[in-house]
């Protein structure tokens, strides 16, 4: 046997023994979302590697295992290309947490990304798998000129705690108003996710709802969190990590 293979076997064995004694819990995470949304970049950050501007699109699924705080994390980094999307659901039964990445700066892909997320929520809701929704690439979205209204209304990028879903406006998203999505409350409204009342309002255009007929809100009996982040600048990544390790 080549010494390099022997070395990786020894490392794996050492990791398994160390995890048995050192780690409080083992967490399997499935990271999904459309291509180019930043899934592999996010996994790299989780494992302590720096931001990489030039990444290679993932093919199929890439598995990685590392320590995060006192936890041993096993990550399934899934490919976002359409041809690989059927693989996503094969990882759901192994996952203790599903992370869904959205590229907030890609206005052309937002509708597809939102629709696929809603499908994932419907598919995994009975199993109550915790769900972490990450709006990524906030650094690419230009801010409008600073105003008092902007500062008070659009700045919160942290996890929702107490908010009033009904009073948030839903708008047609365009390049010029994308900055609103940096606010997790606005993002939750666009997705139809009322986290305060734990329900999903399924939009009419989604494939599983009859066209033109409002569907009943879907009760969410699971942990759901939404963050908006920048994997490039590291903005709010630590908040995401803190949330993951507490589940
Ligand atoms: N500006 C900016 N670029 C980012 C950010 N996150 C990721 N990227 C870039 O986006 C591109 C795609 O990132 P990946 O992590 O490979 O995307 P992915 O979701 O894994 O893509 P697939 O594997 O094809 O599904 C890369 O060029 C990254 O450097 C971010 O927060 N800001
Ligand atoms: Mg990838």
From TrEMBL:
GTP binds at residues 33-40, 80, 136-139. The keyword Nucleotide-binding applies. SMART domains: ARF, SAR. One of its GO terms (cellular component) is lytic vacuole membrane. Mg(2+) binds at residues 40, 58. The keyword Nucleotidyltransferase does not apply. SUPFAM superfamilies: P-loop containing nucleoside triphosphate hydrolases. This is ZYBA0S03-10088g1_1. It comes from Zygosaccharomyces bailii (strain CLIB 213 / ATCC 58445 / CBS 680 / BCRC 21525 / NBRC 1098 / NCYC 1416 / NRRL Y-2227).
């Amino acid at each position: 046997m080549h010494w390099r293979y022997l070395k990786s076997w020894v490392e794996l064995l050492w990791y398994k023994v160390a995890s048995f004694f050192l780690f409080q819990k083992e967490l399997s995470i499935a990271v999904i979302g459309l291509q180019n949304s930043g899934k592999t970049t996010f996994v790299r950050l989780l494992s302590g590697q720096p931001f990489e501007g030039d990444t290679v699109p993932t093919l199929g699924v890439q598995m990685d295992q590392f320590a995060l705080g006192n936890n041993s994390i096993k990550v399934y980094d899934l490919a976002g290309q359409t041809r690989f999307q059927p693989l996503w659901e094969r990882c759901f039964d192994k996952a203790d947490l599903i992370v869904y990445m959205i590229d907030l700066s890609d206005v052309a892909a937002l509708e597809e990304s939102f629709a696929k997320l809603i499908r994932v929520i419907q598919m995994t809701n009975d199993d109550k798998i915790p769900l972490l929704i990450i709006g990524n690439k906030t650094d690419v979205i230009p801010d409008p000129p600073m105003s008092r209204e902007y500062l008070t209304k659009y700045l919160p990028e942290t996890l929702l705690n107490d908010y009033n879903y009904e009073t948030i406006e839903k708008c047609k998203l365009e390049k010029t108003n994308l900055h609103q999505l940096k606010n997790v409350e606005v993002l939750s409204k666009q997705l139809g996710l009322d986290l305060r009342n734990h329900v999903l309002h399924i939009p009419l255009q989604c494939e599983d709802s009859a066209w033109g007929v409002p569907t009943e809100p879907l009760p969410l009996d699971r942990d759901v969190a939404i963050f908006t982040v920048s994997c490039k600048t590291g903005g709010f990544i630590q908040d995401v990590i803190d949330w993951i390790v507490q589940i």
